[in-house]
Fold:
Amino acid sequence: DLRLPIGHKEDTSSWIHRRRAPPAAGPPLTPMPRLRILPMAAALVACLCLIFAAQRAQTTHEKALGLATRSRGLAVPQSALAVRPRVVPGVRGVPSRDGMAGKRAAVVTRATFEGFVINQLLTNPQAQAALGAASAALLGGIGLLVNRGSRADQPVPGSDGAAAASPARGPTRGGPGWLPWGSAPVALADAVGVFGATGKTGSEVVKSLLAEGKSVIGYVRDQAKAKETFKDAVNVKNLAFRQCDVTKPDTLGDSATLFEGVSQLVIALGPVYGKLPSGEFGPIDGLTPQAVDYEGVINVLNSAKTAMKPNTPTTDKLFNWGWVPDQADLWTNFDDVIMGGTSASKVESVGGSMKWSGKVIAEGGGFCGMRSDPEKPIKSLQPYDALKMRIRGDGNRYKFTIQLRNGTRYQCPFDTTKGILQDIELPFSSFVGLSSKKANEVDYNAIPLSEADRSDIAFMNVVLSKFEFNGFPNRAGIPGEFSLSIDSIDAVAKPAPQIVMVTSAAVERNARITTKEQRQADIPIVQLNPQGILNWKYKGEAALRDSGLTYSVIRPCGLTTLNETTEFALDLLQGDRVSGAISRKEIASLVTSALSTPTADGKTFEVRRSEARDAVAVGAASRSVILQKLQTLVKDTDRYKTGLPVLPMAVDPPAEELSKEETQKVLDDPRVKAQRKREPTATQVAGRADDEPSFVVYRNGKPIPA
Structure:
């Protein structure tokens, strides 16, 4: 899609930025009186308690003073007499320094009274209780004023007023630094943060994540645009927003605060285009490809690396046979004698390993096996993604079986090298569902083990058989004597991508170009490369790969608004050699799937709608199909193993841009004209009625009420 998105001028200053600079002029903010009632009431209670405390101290002072003068002959010094005397009635006469008789009233100075009040507040229990109540009420009022007043002073998103605010202190929606949203604060945990949430692709990602039941925190630059984009989602409880500008690092604030409650990120950033003061069309407000796709991505990554530590696989022991034979939790053998065969095997503890050996006779059943004790429970495998075994084999191909309590069986073959100690990993996504009727027959309708409920495991077994699947021979399983030693079996939890970045197809093929002639011979978008956008996006990708965080990079081909409600099969490809079309909704669904599986980690790939004639079908882009396709992709570090070109170096755009004549020549290309002709000129997005709300979350093809 060669058309650039038309943007509009937006307010790029964030709350954090305005906190450090004088706020922009605007109409006075409208306070929220209901939020002031409790602080005012607390202050009133504090005043009443202080008055009571003072009165108690005064009364005690008067009584004590009279008692002292009667019993001890104490006198008020003349030096204590001062202006503004206070007459205290009911106190007997106080003798002066020269012994003069007391009178019916005593003159007490303010200095004497205040000093005695302080003494009584330190010693009198009633005065202390009153003072404590006053302090509690006063502190409570201050706390309520700070907590509620900070929100009450904030403008509604899109208002003209500017309010100072501090960075977010936590994942509670509606707290300091967060955009006011919804009817009540909601604490969000294990949320997905989306940078570029108000963009065309980013907003679709938000909807897709919500449809999957995820909590979402959108990082947005413009309050008004966020309010307009998500006006129909104000009551979605698991959605919150935070304002920042990726081109201004100071607005990202403290990284621990910015990403608190966030476990994964989606980066769906892009430059903003519009009409410039000169009348030309180009990036506005300094939101160029370089500033957003490269420097902005680096700002996000620098902040994320501090708060999101690199994920590594974790392992837990399932079976570890140790060095004491009579305490080893050994498996038991089962051979084809149960089917009339003559194969035989035994299991024993040897040198800290479980050794399984025997002889397979091809005639008859043609297999030997060993399995765990069905009476001893196996821990839930639901939190894990794979099994890992340390073995010493003999060159045969074995099969590992997991059987659930519901009777469903899954198998995964693994190869061994004779006499070599190996670590074998068996991803659950590699297990094949088996028929309940025939031993080696595949059940193509079985739920993949990676998506099945793995919390209730009946038992595990290992088999050496003359058959593979569906009756085909096991060409790596040689009948005769065999020996397999297993040191341990672990459950492995592998990390899903911490960051999924959406960039663009053609960025890699553009980076491989070294001459002007090569550029002129490539596809139109590579020839144009407006503002060097392909170079800057690719440099952003490179920064993500160098971050040390787990990642996945999705490169959509040309974006289209056609047939958005039709389900197309998707092509997931690598090497950046194809072109095509895909809708933003399809991209969003793919992003959601990539966030959920470790099979997407460390992989960069292009995506388009399949151009096959039978590409349109129900379930063609289902989650299970997408997960299967993600599994077949190659990690960036292993591309050379499959003949894919190694990722090229990231370089700056060419210094020489196309002239107007050269640009027009590219735009006159028949491929460009055909693309423009296919796209509708109407503003209505295909697949959505005029009266349909702009923000609707669907699940299973049906809208979810807000």
The chain is about 25% helix and 20% strand. The first helix runs from residue 15 to 20. Confidence is low (pLDDT under 50) at residues 1-36, 61-119, 144-176, 681-702.
